[in-house]
Automatic annotation (TrEMBL):
This protein's UniProt keywords: Membrane, Transmembrane, Transmembrane helix
Name assigned to this protein: Uncharacterized protein
High-level lineage: Bacteria, Bacillati, Actinomycetota, Actinomycetes, Kitasatosporales
Compositional bias segments (type: Pro residues): 218-229
Top-level taxon: Bacteria
Annotated stretches, region: Disordered: 193-229
Transmembrane segments: 229-248, 254-275
Record carries keyword Membrane: yes
Organism from which the protein derives: Streptomyces griseoloalbus
Amino acid sequence: MSTEKSPAGRRGGPPAPGALLLCRAGAGSVARAARLLHERMLVVGAGAGWSVLVPEGRPWRDGTEPVDRVVTGWSTALAVGAPWPVIALWWDADRAGVGLASGFRRPVGYVWLANGTPAGEAEAMRTFAARLGLDPVLDLRALDLLTEPDPAADAPARLSGVLAVLTRAGVLVPPGLAPGEPADRLLQAARIQPGVRPVEEREGGTPSETPASDRPAPSSPPRPAMPPAPTLALAHMAVGLPLAIWGLRHRDGGWFAAGALLLAHGALGLAAHTLTQPRD
């Protein structure tokens, strides 16, 4: 898929670090799940059944963590704690990439250099397409073209090509939320979108009350059966512990944060289950 130079490339100068997180769920569900990340974000609808998280990006704007590590940790934590996949688009002055986190499976991703030179493995794109249920012929061919040399496409243009393929899966990113834009412009564009929601917590970390419009109606069809609470909580802890240890050993704040969040979520789930069970 040949793509033109992105607007960021035409303006001259390397793009400032930024990221977008696409979630296959409604904005209300995504906003509630994202509170666990303890990061200021905005969430808006991004097509039928999709939402996009626009982070303020304090970790990479402060220079404490690279953007790719941070968003990989965030997307992993979100995908394990919720029954829907998360697609992370990220970029900085040197590279750009796309990653997919889904459930307890290992995240998969692809990277391009700033000038658009492919720097990943083609097999990753095939796994990306398969996990999202994309068309194994048309969509996969379009993604494969993004892994081939194209002097007319820089890194943000490659990410725009990924978004173009995802439109056939229902993704429709609102205007202004373009790869390569700095976080300030992304937040400004998100604020003017209809139905925008802030991701925030009450003081003390207690999530704010769910708006009445987000609560399921009494006549709603039954939801699919979920694993028992203790099982899910233990699974979160089992995944979170090695992630936290790996992040600590490698001084990787993104993975450490993801592991710590999963550990805390699992511990809270076990505690809540214990308190609600009748005693003998």
